Amino acid sequence: MKAKRIFLSSFLVLAFYLSGCSVKIVNTTPDIAHASPTGNYTLSAHAQVNKKTVVTSSLEAFVVIDGEQRAMTATTSAPNLFKYDYPAPPQEELTRFYYVLKFVTQKEDGTAVPAQIISDLYQVQLPNQITLTVEKTRAAVGTRVSINGQGFTGQDIVFIDHTPAETIFSSPTKLQFVVPQLKPNFGYSIEVRSTTRAQTAGYLRIDPASPLSVLPNQLSLRPGQSQALAFALDYPAPYGGLYINITTDIPDSIIMPEVLIPEGARTVSATIEGDKVDQGHLFINASTLPELVIPLTIR
After folding, report:
1. Tens of pLDDT along the chain (299 residues)?
2. What pTM did the predictor assign?
3. Are the C-beta atoms of 177 and 148 separated by less than 8 Å?
4. I need a surface site. Which of 91, 160, 212, 229 has the fewest CB within 10 A?
5. b/e map 280-295, b = 16+ CB within 10 Å
6. Is the dihedral of CA 33, 38, 40, 42 positive or negative?
7. Is the distance from CB of 78 to CB of 89 less than 8 angstroms?
8. Cβ contacts of residue 28 below 8 Å, gap of 6+?
């Protein structure tokens, strides 16, 4: 979709003069829009007035999309800030637009002179309208959570509020992330971001971390190299011991024994050995405790 720009030569001269010394209109619309459940996206611009002869009460802003001039609304949150709620057509991925700012200047003799300036051409990337869903509404620190949707790539990163989480690309319809170390017992927004996407997937309440911990919390091995893993419980293992089930998404790349924390004990160690070069994760599960995820690289 291309925006049409039609100028009068007199307005071009006036726009150049005014933008250079008294009035500017600054785009404040993000380059990538956040997903909107209504399909409306806010375009915003700020009028900067640097000359007393400009009558600020006369400021009127318009946004031009696909050749159509649309009136913007002055906000009460900030002076000279204008917004327009754009109802994006279905399947539209990119919107190009520019602004027109109209106002009145007052000469020394009191004569009112109408004027306008025209901005540069801007664009905003609209998010994919495909619905994303988080499989859980709550999860513990260090556990793995899935997001279902479409169009996922290896470039997608999951953000918990403003914190990037370790992101695992499973397929074009499934993305996973590991819950980061954030303050537990609070709810956080989940967003998927990439160069072409910034879309809210839902919300997650973060629970405290599992009473089972593993050190080191990430592994990098060479083929044939061994590494000790230490498992620790916050309390003594129950009757019969605590069996720890360890799986991986790269089964041809590691050799791992079964692990059991003996009854009444709090710790145990085991040795993992690298095999074929690959990159993936260890998934550690024990009884009803939250799953732990350990990044693993065989280099």
Report:
1. 444 343 333 333 344 444 445 788 999 999 888 767 677 889 999 999 887 888 888 999 999 998 899 999 999 888 899 999 998 887 777 889 999 999 998 887 778 899 999 999 999 988 766 678 999 898 988 888 999 988 888 999 999 998 999 999 989 899 999 999 899 899 999 999 887 677 889 999 998 888 998 999 888 999 989 999 999 999 999 999 999 999 898 888 888 778 999 999 999 999 988 888 998 888 898 888 888 888 899 88
2. 0.48
3. no
4. 91
5. bbbbbbbeebbbbbbb
6. negative
7. no
8. 44, 45, 46, 81
Burial 182-211 (b: 16+ CB within 10 A, else e): eeeeeebebbbbbebbbbbbbebebeebbe
Write out the two tokens for 283: 């998934």
Map tokens 């002179």 to a residue.
113
